C-alpha cells in the first residue's frame, strides 16, 4: 500500500491538502473495492432512492394535474346533469393527490418544480375541453386516463421486478389508483367521449402533452 504523508512544514499547504485528500479518498475506495458488499450496498441504495423519487414525483404531479382537469371540467359543466359524474371522479382524484402529498415527505422526495405550470395547464385543459361540450370533457378524460393507467402499469411492473415485499404498500396504492383511472376512462367512453368533435386528433394531442408532462416531471 502506498502511504503519502504531508510534511508539517509544507509550504504548498493548499496544494498538498488537496492531494492528500484525493489520495486518502482513493485508498479508502480501494479498500471498499476489495470489500464489494459495502460499496455495492451504497450504490444500490442510491439507485433505489432515485427510482422511488422518480416514481413519487411524477405520480404526485400527475394527480395534481388530474385534480385540476376535473376542477376545470366542473367549472364549466358542474351545474349540468353531468356534474355529479364528474364530481365523483374529481373526488377520487382529490384522494389520490392527498395520498401522494402524504407519501412525498415520508419518502423524503421533493415535488416537481413544474407544479405551478401543471396547475394552470390542467385547469385550462379541463375547462377548454368542457367548453366543447360533455363529449369534449369525456374525450379529455379518456385520453388522460388511458395514459395514466398505462403509466401506473409500467410502475407496477418496475416495483414488482424490484422487490414486491419491500414496496408492498406502494404497490397497493398504485394498483388501486390504476384501477380508478381505468374506471374513469370507461366512464368517459360510456358518456360519449368518443363522439367528441375531432376525437382522434384531440385524443392524440392531449396524450402527447401527457407523455411530455410525465417525461419532464420524472426528471425535474
Ligand atoms: Fe388519479
Ligand atoms: Fe383519474
Give your account of this protein's structure:
The protein has 220 residues and is an all-alpha fold. It has one domain (55-218). It contains seven helices and no strands. It has helices at 13-33, 36-77, 83-106, 115-130, 134-162, 168-190, 199-219. α2 runs antiparallel to α3 (83-106), α2 (36-77) runs antiparallel to α7 and α4 packs antiparallel against α5. The longest helix has 42 residues, at 36-77. It starts with 12 loop residues before the first helix and ends with a helix. Residues 1-32 have low confidence and may be disordered. The structure holds fe (ii) ion (2 copies). The site of one fe (ii) ion (FE2) has 6 residues, from α6. It is a peripheral membrane protein. Its EC number is 1.14.99.60. It is found in: Mitochondrion inner membrane. It is an enzyme of class 1 (oxidoreductase).
| Biggest β-sheet description | none
Give the low-confidence spans: 1-32
Mean pLDDT across all amino acids: 86
Number of helices: 7
Strand-and-helix sequence, N→C? HHHHHHH
Computed CA radius of gyration, to the nearest angstrom: 25 Å
Bound molecules: fe (ii) ion
Q: What does the overall shape look like?
A: elongated
Beta-strand content: under 5%
- Distance from first to last alpha carbon: 43 Å
Helix proportion of residues, in percent? Answer: over 70%
**Number of domains as seen in the coordinates:** 1
Assembly level: single chain
The chain-level structural class is mainly alpha
- Strand count: 0
Task: Jot down its keywords.
mainly alpha; 220 residues; disordered N terminus; single chain; elongated
Amino acid at each position: 500500500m502506498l502511504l503519502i504523508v504531508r510534511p508539517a512544514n509544507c509550504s504548498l499547504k493548499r496544494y498538498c491538502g488537496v492531494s492528500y485528500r484525493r489520495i486518502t479518498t482513493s485508498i479508502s475506495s480501494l479498500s471498499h473495492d476489495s470489500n464489494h458488499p459495502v460499496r455495492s450496498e451504497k450504490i444500490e441504495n442510491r439507485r433505489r432512492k432515485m427510482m422511488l423519487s422518480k416514481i413519487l414525483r411524477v405520480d404526485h404531479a400527475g394527480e395534481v394535474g388530474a385534480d385540476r382537469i376535473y376542477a376545470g371540467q366542473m367549472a364549466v359543466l358542474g351545474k349540468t346533469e353531468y356534474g355529479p359524474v364528474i364530481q365523483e371522479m374529481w373526488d377520487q382524484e382529490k384522494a389520490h393527490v392527498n395520498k401522494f402529498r402524504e407519501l412525498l415527505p415520508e419518502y423524503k422526495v421533493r415535488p416537481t418544480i413544474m407544479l405551478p405550470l401543471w396547475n394552470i395547464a390542467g385547469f385550462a385543459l379541463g375547462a377548454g375541453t368542457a367548453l366543447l361540450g360533455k363529449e369534449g370533457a369525456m374525450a379529455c378524460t379518456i385520453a388522460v386516463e388511458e395514459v395514466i393507467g398505462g403509466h401506473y402499469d409500467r410502475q407496477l411492473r418496475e416495483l414488482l421486478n424490484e422487490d414486491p415485499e419491500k414496496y408492498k404498500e406502494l404497490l397497493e396504492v398504485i394498483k388501486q389508483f390504476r384501477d380508478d383511472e381505468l374506471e374513469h376512462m370507461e366512464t368517459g367512453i360510456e358518456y360519449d367521449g368518443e363522439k367528441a368533435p375531432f376525437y382522434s386528433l384531440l385524443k392524440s394531442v392531449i396524450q402527447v402533452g401527457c407523455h411530455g408532462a410525465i417525461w419532464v416531471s420524472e426528471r425535474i
